[in-house]
Structures are given as structure tokens and as C-alpha cells.
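retry 2 of 3: previous attempt timed out while embedding phenylalanine. Reduced batch size to 1 and resubmitted. Inputs unchanged:
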Amino acid sequence: MVDVNEQIDGAVAQATKDFALVAEQSSREALVRARNCHLGKEAPLRLMQRTLGSLAPDERKATGSAIQAGLKVIEAQYAQVEAAVEAVELAGQLARETVDVTTDVTLHPRGALHPITALINRMCDVFVAMGWQIAEGPEAEAEWLNFDALNFTPDHPARFLSDTLFLDPPEAHRILRTHTSPVQARTLLTHDLPVYVVAPGKVYRADEYDATHLPVFHQIEGLAVDKGLGMADLKGTLDHLAKAMFGDEVVTRLRPHYFPFTEPSAEVDLRCFVCHGASVGDPAHPCRTCKSEGWIEWGGCGVVNPRVLQAAGIDTEVYSGFAFGMGVDRTVMFRNNASDLRDFVEGDIRFSRQLRGVAR
Ligand code: PHE
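retry 2 succeeded.
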């Protein structure tokens, strides 16, 4: 009996010692190993339990409950180490998953529309609000649509290589459109009347690259064809657009001009925003913005030449129309006081930042 009790105490003592080590190492592996060792099938006290059958009944009972008591102690100790190991594991996991909200982060600023795109959207909105449609045409355009359909004579100077960029091969008569007006011809050929369309887009000319010229720039074209439209409708539409772009104070004027596809034709000017005309005839106070002319050119316009309508098979006894084409880049320049067109294409973020929100 004494022998057995000593064996039990020894097993418990060994377990206590091993568990203390596990707690020190605080490792899950060591914990599993110690559990198998002291509570598994081959644990010393489990092996002793298997020998109980060979004992006399009263001895069997006493030894059995002594072993049970020893196992209980070991189990209780095990529960403690297990809890300790788990607590350390959890603390480690929390530490690993901590987010340092004070750490430096790389901020990716939100992108924005280019000021020209933003203004095109805005100009289109003015027309969409009046029920007009948006039309489009290709930038690589048929020479015929860019010129012939718009009543340019075969020897018109605008066709010459010095102004127009021709695409290879020359026999294909394909060019980079020099204005958005070919969309007028395309619209007349594809739409039922009446038509009210605006067509924004890129245009190309063999121009110098300087503060006031870009070889690629933007226009917004307008075309209205209906019964009884004329110059007064054109003037009213342009005034509405000018006010929407520059505010109610803006003053416009139509100055006689020539375009092959409109008759009569005019250029639309805006009263100079800077000197409001005060610099005219006052050499002591010149104005750089309008070159002391009091007005700045905004675009071309006119009543659609009947020959253009007839080329699209339209009965000019019944229908008439007006058209206009405005420089978008110029509009952004005037609205935002930008003095160099090159800033719009050179991609310097400091320039775009200045215009952020303004061109909306
Ligand atoms: N297409 C002309 C230009 O580029 C402008 C214009 C458009 C004139 C529509 C009259 C009518 O200068």
C-alpha cells in the first residue's frame, strides 16, 4: 500500500514539475506533450489503473480511489497551465494584430477631371438642359466631310498642307479634322429634322506650339436646323451660353466674318474681362488680354449656308438653321485667367491643382 501511494505521489510530483516547465516555455507543443505524458493512455497513473484487476477487492477499492485522486490533482494543474499558455498566445496574437493609427501612411489623392474635360461637360450640360443632343465624329476625318460638304472650294487655302494635317496615304483623302464642323455634315446626313446638337472634341492644325496656339485643341460645335430659325435665334443661344459660362455681366457682340458653310457669318466676341473696353484709345493703360481692342474673339458662327443643307438633301424652302463653333481651351483661359495654353497640356500637377474645382 505504502509503495503504491508513493508511486502515485511520485507521478503527481513529476506532472507538477513538467507542467511548471511548460508554463515557463509557454509553448503549445510542450503543453500537448505534457498532457499525453501525464493524462494520456500511457500515463503512469493510467498504467496503474490497468493493474487494479489483479488486486484483492478491498485493496483494489482503496488503490483505485487513490489513483483517481492523483489524476484529479494532475487534471486541475493541467487546466491551469493550459489557461496560462492560452493567455500568452492570445496576448501575442493581439500584439501582432495591433494597428498603429499614428503611423505615417502614403496618401493617394483623388484624381480629378482635366479642366478642359470638366468645362466641356459643363458646356454640354447647358445645351442638354435645353433639350439638345450630344453628337460625335472621328478625329481622323474624311477630307470631304471636313471641307467639301461644308462648301469649301477645292482651292480653299485652309486645305493646304500648311494648315491641315494629312494622313498617309494621301490618296485616301483622310485628314485630322481641322474643326468640329464636319460633325454638322455627319449629323445632317444621319438625323431626322429638326436637329439640335452640340459636338465637343479635339481638332488639329499645323500650328506653332506657343502660349496662344496648340496644334491640338478643343472646340464645341453647335448646330440647330428647324423651321424658321435665323440669326436672332443664334444670338440668343450664344448669349445664353456666354452667361452660363461667364456670368450675367458678360457682353457679347457679333462681328461680320466669312465661313464657306454659313451665310451670313460672324465671329462672336466677348467684352474684355480685364479692361472692359477702357484700354481702347488709351495708350497709357494698355490691356494685354484684349491687346487694347476691348473685345476678345470666342468663336465663329452664322446661319447655315443653304448649300450645306442641300448637300444633305434638306428642303431649304422649309428648313433653315444656325451653327457655331467655340474654342474650349480659350473659354477655360478666359474663365480661369490662365495666360499660357501650354500649361493645359504639359501635365504639371501644380497647374491643375490651381484649377481644381474652378473649372467645374
Ligand atoms: N469651324 C469654324 C472654325 O473652326 C467655326 C464655325 C463653326 C463657324 C460653326 C461657323 C459655324 O473656325
